[in-house]
Design a protein that fits this description.
Strand content: 35-45%
Helix content: 10-25%
Order of helices and strands: EEHEE
Largest sheet: 2 strands, antiparallel
Structural class: mainly beta
Shape: elongated
Distance between the termini: 37 Å
Strand order of the largest sheet: 1-2
Radius of gyration: 18 Å
Low-confidence stretches: none
Mean pLDDT: 94
Amino acid sequence: MGEGRVQMVGHNVFVETGEDRVMESELRFRSQVELAASLLVAGFGVEQVYGNWQRGPVTPKSRIMAFVARRG
């Protein structure tokens, strides 16, 4: 598994039939630079990036990145 990737396995068990549907997923977490580049390619300009929902700065301990971007 590559860096910044998380693999998951989900099970949905149907009570009436006992059927177990297994779904495997992989998420890749992109860096701030990668996300900003993707937005630029899509025609957006990044106005601000926050590291939490209270508009705090992005730090190495930030659990999220909230981008404010506008088209054009």
